[in-house]
Design goal:
The structure is a single chain. With 174 residues, this protein is mainly beta. It has a 10-stranded antiparallel β-barrel. The radius of gyration is 17 Å and the shape is globular. It starts with a helix and ends with a helix.
């Protein structure tokens, strides 16, 4: 296998559905992103949808929006790290039954955060070997968020990925 073939086998455009629950509130976002493997880690990269006042979001918005937030999720067998960069910057680390430090920073606020992860599971053996070929990957984690030692909420994130149909998407964009 050539280096280019190996790189292509370790990278895949994916359609991502993010279902986020905080206590009794639920938000669902759909985006197109990239899943790739580097060493023993998997990475999911996408642009965070921009929410408009009318409740719509631009899941496939282009980079022309003012300072879009780029999201990177680093996944290993025992840990998930969520990094956001843009108008808002934050880092959160999730390890099953462990407290992990992180932070949140915007123009107006800056504070440390701590997560305590109570659930971390996926629907396929992870990390899997060979080319990134699958019908659907589902990664779920739940955690308590602490700001200055005070629990501010219970969260559950479901990240569902399916291979993006590049041909159909390109036809729709024309």
């Amino acid at each position: 296998m050539t280096e280019r073939q190996a790189e292509a086998a370790n990278k895949l455009m994916v359609r991502i559905v993010i279902d986020s629950r905080q206590d009794d509130e639920r938000v669902t976002q759909e985006v197109t992103g990239e899943l790739y493997r580097k060493g023993s880690h998997f990475y999911v990269r996408y642009i965070e949808p921009i929410n408009h006042p009318d409740g719509q979001n631009d899941g496939d918005s282009d980079m022309s929006a003012s300072s879009p937030t780029q999201v990177m999720i680093k996944i290993s067998k025992r840990q998930i790290k969520l990094m956001r960069r843009g108008q808002v910057e934050s880092e959160q680390t999730f390890s099953y039954l462990e407290k992990q430090g992180g932070y949140y920073r915007s123009q107006a606020l800056r504070f440390p955060m701590t997560t305590y992860t109570t659930l971390m599971e996926w629907n396929n053996p992870w990390p899997f070997e060979g080319p990134l070929q699958f019908d659907q990957l589902m990664l779920t984690w739940a955690y308590q968020l602490y700001i200055e030692e005070q629990c501010t909420g219970q969260f559950e994130i479901k990240l569902k990925m399916t291979p993006a149909d590049t041909h159909n998407r390109m036809a729709q964009e024309e």
